[in-house]
Specification:
The complex is a heterodimer of chains A (about 525) and B (about 625). Chain A has about 525 residues and is mainly β. In chain A, about 10% of the residues lie in helices and about 40% in strands. Chain B is elongated and about 100 Å long. The chains are: A mainly beta (about 525), B mainly alpha (about 625). Chains A and B meet through strand 19, helix 4 and helix 5 of A and helix 3, helix 19, helix 21, strand 1 and helix 24 of B.
């Protein structure tokens, strides 16, 4: 009650102040609804270090007043002739920090036809769990075959600053992909380069590697990575990838694997090894380590039968125990089957506290970025029960990652326009409850709507990546060093399974011409 | 300060200068409007300026971003042919005048009229249809830097040195390596010309060169950092502008001229020469000669025709496209593709498919196989015409990878999404176009309707565009595009364009079984009377299957029968040696299917489209 009183008095003071400037909003007409704003920043859970949530008031008017107030009557107001509400950074930070574990209240007034209207206020809760200050993403176009001007960028979440880590214009326009960090630490970084200088770049505290990861024993060079949380060890998939293009309005393309395995790369020993359990005749893919490094989660589906519909390609979720001392794997166990869900499972990601696993499910396949049926699910790893949190939309939700404290989830969604992936953030509490997601705060909120480039693969990092672009570029023009595949310690079945590339006949890799 | 060698101008000299400038302006205007055609520059470069934050952020990523955005702003007015020619003429005059100013101050002994040399160089580069406005801006800024250097000419060496450092670092950071190199050369040459002491000259040269070398080494993130100081193109971090090369070659020319004309002997020769014929007459004669030569087609770069044929196709001027069919410069895959489109749109494809060169086979009918950047928007155009709206949109997205803010691409994306009723996406592209001066009203006509939710009115407005054929297309087959066309036909057998393209596709691949199959199941020729090219294919098919052509459903005309006999007769005359018979066969049957499969088909010539590297 006291809180309400304080808030009302703050709003009143603001209104009086604006009244003094010949505007009379104290007598505004009250509309019993919340204002329409873009992006929808109502009823959120926010970290206290998030950048200002600038927004557009989608209500017709000539003048706008927005008041921001906290629990203790702290706050500020913004007056604007434009419907774009730009929040001052310092005032915003002060407001959030003063209201940790409480909420802030936002009230919108609009002057239309010389008459002020007021909307129902809305509240956002502020929690004491900070969000990692940066995320790294790949900026790519919407085209699927060609690429141009790809860059790996880092964006601050505490303000609107964005810097470029590497641009492919400097690497002969080759493709750059799959940036990965160990435990969100910007010092330990992995990047793939393709079709320019080609190879895998790995940088740790004391080592920089530029690798040719293809071996005679593996299907391909390294593809989808997951860095072991405690060791210099990265699990990679190796894939024979094939791509088709849908002409449907709601889907653009479909990426399928003709074959895939999982291998491990030991950075210190420059050694690649695998196990018959994760490199079978089936397709193993998208590895992800548990935070203790004792389990490797991955997905698996049977090899596609020639002529069978792609819609039958459904992946199961598995995990396998790993002993880092002996470098031995246990037996793979299915923890969620596609036959049980009727859907294809992909992108498993375990939370840093090891309690939850977030994954995607879609009607088929694993490359979900262009599949609108793809949604996010949350599994309790103790009970192995899963639920569909209320953070999904009708568009594709796909790549996701956890903040280092395990409380914030970032995921990409195409819900804004159906074609551009935008990062959304949601708070996951100790019980696995997800808060309403909000899109990346931007200086000009309208730019989310008119953006032509994707925020691909957003990954939280604990600090800015301090990688000298010159050093990186000089490194990748050197000759790649070869990795060593440890074939002696691997059962024959593993390396004679899907890794025999010759078994992939030519006709399997394409669609036959003209069926009459 | 003015050099002791600065010429003293009389009224007559000013008058002659005005005359030269007038002639110069007239020449440039006609050269741009008639020879270069500024609308072609617009079409090729697709400039777009917007105040949209996302657009500005995109350009902010480039070191040349500021120049690029300014250039885009000016270039967009080339949309209007007359306005474009006037703008460019004005800029050319401005640059010439600025050069005159700097020559008078910095290089006083240089021959009057040398200020036109850089402009002539840029004019010639225009014919490559590459970026040009950036060059003007670069010129302008370099001139300002040099003029300021002239003002501080009498200052102490340390002050000048500091200014040189700032100028090089500034131009390097804002405009890139080549700009700073130009500035460096300009500053050094100024020091030489103005006869500073050797000690000062050497000090400044060393400092300037070291500064630039350091900037290149430290700031420029290139793959070949060590080489980038020597090799200008190594600084490919940001958009490279080919016309810089012309500028780069210009500064050494200035220095050479200056040194030459600093010699007393040449100075005297110059004085004598100017007494014989007033100087401006040299330039008037030069303009007239160059103008005369420029208007001759021979001088025109082949690039123009490649842009021109695309432009005509875009404007749906199919007659003009067909007029260019025999131009030697247009033997590449994409001009041939445009000619095939013109054949269809003029309704003569089934009869005249082989009346034009089909050396690329099916690869100049459809561009999706091993597509390059240039294929993307053209494929979008073709599928749009065919009613394959999803395919058109898909290729427009691919085109957008290379030119995110190309108005042509944005417009296509807006229209295809409107047709496909992807309203949020349509409004996205319309909003971007709305922020542009040229497309504001076009975009607004739809945006207004979206705001008031008048979807019926939008559909009505879209009726000027092809209708979406069907939603039944499941895949876009880049490598097997015929499969998409078959699907189009399955969902709408009345799609004439899809049918004719399918028939042409199988003919060009010499797949006569498929050809006969599709012909049989089509509804287009109920009486069995088929076009000339189809008859040529069918008679060949019948004979290959030992069937009597006269007793088949599809009628073969007597003329066609006779021609086929004659074709074989000639072959027989040369004892079936087709190489010997080629000349004669080409003379009489060069426009037939038979000649194509014997001599022109890629199946025979093994002509292949270069594979795209992934």
């Amino acid at each position: 009650m006291k809180r309400d009183y304080l808030h009302l008095s703050f709003v009143f003071i603001c209104l009086v102040l604006f009244s003094c400037t010949s505007e009379n909003i104290t007598n505004s007409e009250r509309l019993n609804r919340k204002p329409s704003i873009f992006p929808d920043y109502t009823d959120l859970v926010l970290p206290n270090n998030i950048a200002p949530l600038n927004f557009i008031v989608n209500e017709p008017g000539e003048q706008y007043v927005v008041t921001f107030s906290g629990f203790d009557n702290s706050g500020f107001s913004i007056k604007s002739r434009s419907s774009k509400i730009n929040i001052p950074q310092k005032k915003w930070n002060a407001l959030l920090n003063a209201n940790i574990n409480k909420s802030i209240t936002i009230k919108v007034f609009v002057k239309d036809n010389n008459k002020w209207q007021s909307f129902d206020e809305f509240k956002d809760s502020i929690v004491n769990d900070r969000i990692d200050p940066f995320f790294v993403y790949r900026r790519i176009n919407t085209g699927l075959v060609f690429w141009n001007n790809i860059s790996i960028k880092q964006r601050s979440l505490e303000n609107f600053e964005e810097t470029e880590i590497i641009n492919n214009r400097n690497s002969k326009n080759g493709c750059i992909n799959c940036h990965t960090f160990q435990n969100n630490d910007p010092k330990n970084l992995m990047l793939h380069f393709r079709a320019g200088p080609a190879g895998t770049f790995i940088k740790t505290d004391n080592k920089t590697l530029w690798l040719n990861s293809a071996t005679p024993y593996t299907l391909s060079g390294f593809v989808y990575p997951s860095w072991h949380p405690k060791r210099n060890l990265i699990a990679f998939s190796t894939n024979k990838i094939n791509q088709d293009f849908h002409g449907y309005g709601d889907r653009i393309n479909y990426v399928r694997d003709l074959a895939s395995d999982i291998v491990l790369y030991d950075i210190d020993k420059n050694k690649v090894f695998t196990s018959p359990e994760i490199a079978t005749m089936n397709c193993e893919n998208l590895p992800n380590w548990s935070p203790d490094g004792k389990w490797l989660y991955f997905i698996r589906c049977p090899r596609k039968i020639k002529g069978a519909s792609d819609t039958l390609t459904k992946y199961d979720l598995l995990r396998i125990a790993y002993d880092e001392k002996t470098e031995k794997f246990g037996k793979a166990e299915t923890i969620l089957s596609s036959s049980e869900t009727g859907m294809s499972i992909s992108h498993p990601t375990v939370s840093p506290d090891g309690k939850f696993l977030v994954f995607c499910m879609a009607d088929y396949g694993y490359f979900n970025i262009n599949n609108p049926t793809s949604d996010l699910y949350l599994m309790d790893l103790q009970t192995l029960k899963f639920l569909k949190p209320d953070i999904n939309s009708n568009a594709s939700e796909s790549f996701h990652g956890w903040s280092s404290n395990g409380r914030w989830l970032v995921f990409t969604s195409k819900r804004i326009d159906g074609i551009i992936t935008i990062p959304f953030f949601s708070y996951i509490d100790e019980n696995g409850n997800a808060s309403k997601p909000f899109p990346l705060p931007t200086e000009n909120p309208e730019s989310i709507k008119t953006r032509l480039f994707n925020y691909n693969r957003p990954v939280f990092v604990l600090a800015a990546v301090e990688l000298d672009q010159n050093d990186l570029l000089n490194q990748i023009q050197q000759t790649t060093s070869k990795v060593w595949f440890d074939s002696l310690n691997v059962d024959l079945d593993a390396i004679s399974g899907p890794t025999i590339i010759q078994t992939l006949k030519k006709e399997e890799s394409g669609v036959p011409y003209m069926d009459k | 300060m003015t050099s002791k060698y600065a010429p003293k101008h009389s009224n007559a000299q000013y008058l002659s200068s005005v005359i030269v400038y007038v002639f110069f302006a007239i020449f440039i205007f006609f050269f741009i409007s008639k020879v270069v055609q500024s609308e072609l520059l617009y079409f090729k470069l697709q400039p777009f300026f917007s105040t949209d934050k996302a657009y500005l952020e995109f350009h902010h990523n480039f070191r040349m971003g500021f120049i690029s955005v300014t250039a885009q702003y000016i270039l967009q007015f080339l949309y209007f042919p007359l306005g474009g020619a006037i703008i460019l003429t004005f800029l050319f005059l401005l640059v010439s005048f600025a050069f005159r100013l700097i020559f008078n101050k910095s290089f006083p002994s240089i021959l009057n009229g040398a200020e036109f040399i850089p402009v002539f160089i840029i004019l010639l580069s225009l014919k490559n249809y590459s970026e040009v406005i950036n060059t003007f801006i670069l010129f302008g800024l370099s001139i300002i830097i040099l003029l300021f250097n002239h003002l501080i000419n009498n200052q102490r060496i340390y002050f000048r040195m500091a200014y040189h450092l700032v100028a090089i670092v500034f131009s390097f950071n804002i405009f890139g390596f080549l700009a700073s190199l130009m500035v460096l050369v300009g500053l050094i040459s100024y020091e030489i010309i103005n006869k500073k002491t050797y000690k000062e000259q050497i000090l400044l040269i060393v400092i300037n060169v070291l500064t630039l070398a350091y900037m290149v080494w430290y700031i420029e993130g290139t793959l070949l950092a060590k080489l980038s100081f020597i090799e200008a193109s190594a600084s490919n971090k940001y958009a490279q502008l080919p016309s810089y090369w012309y500028l780069l070659s210009f500064y050494p020319v200035i220095i050479l001229f200056t040194i030459l004309f600093n010699l007393r002997v040449l100075e005297k020769m110059k004085e004598k020469a100017s007494k014989l014929i007033p100087l401006h007459w040299y330039f008037i004669i030069l303009f007239i000669v160059i103008s005369g030569l420029s208007f001759k087609k021979k001088l025109l770069n082949d690039n123009k025709y490649i842009v021109l044929i695309d432009y005509y196709a875009h404007e749906e001027k199919w007659d003009k496209v067909l007029k260019l069919k025999d131009h030697l410069a247009l033997n590449d895959r994409i001009p041939r593709f445009q000619i095939n489109r013109a054949l269809y749109h003029k309704g003569i494809m089934p009869d005249n498919l082989f009346s034009v060169s089909q050396e690329w086979g099916e690869n100049s009918l459809l561009l999706t196989n091993n597509a390059t950047r240039e294929c993307t928007m053209n494929s979008s155009d073709l599928f749009f015409d065919m009613g394959f709206i999803n395919g058109s949109r898909y290729w427009a997205y691919e085109a957008q990878t290379f030119a995110p803010y190309s108005p042509r691409v944005l417009q296509r994306l807006a229209i295809t999404n409107m047709i496909l009723k992807e309203n949020i996406l349509a409004q996205k592209y319309l909003t971007i176009l709305y922020n542009n001066t040229i497309y504001k009203s076009w975009a607004n006509q739809y945006l207004k309707l979206y705001k008031t939710n008048e979807t019926a009115e939008i559909t009505k407005k879209l009726s000027v565009y092809p209708k979406a054929n069907s939603d039944s297309i499941t895949y876009i087959n880049n490598n097997f595009p015929a499969r998409d066309i078959i699907r189009l036909l399955k969902s709408n057998p009345e799609n004439k364009m899809a049918f004719e393209y399918l028939m042409s596709y199988v003919l060009l691949r010499n797949e006569l079984n498929n050809f006969q199959y599709f012909l049989l199941y089509s509804n287009y020729y109920p009486n069995g009377v088929i076009p000339r090219t189809y008859q040529e294919a069918m008679i060949f098919f019948y004979f290959s299957k030992n069937l009597n052509p006269t007793k088949q459903y599809f009628k073969i005309s007597k003329t066609c029968m006779k021609q086929f006999e004659d074709f074989n007769k000639i072959l027989m005359e040369y004892k079936m040696d087709k190489n010997l018979a080629q000349k004669n066969l080409h003379r009489y049957f060069g426009d037939t299917f038979w000649y194509y499969i014997a001599f022109d088909s890629p199946l025979v010539t093994n002509r292949k489209v270069k594979k795209r590297k992934l």
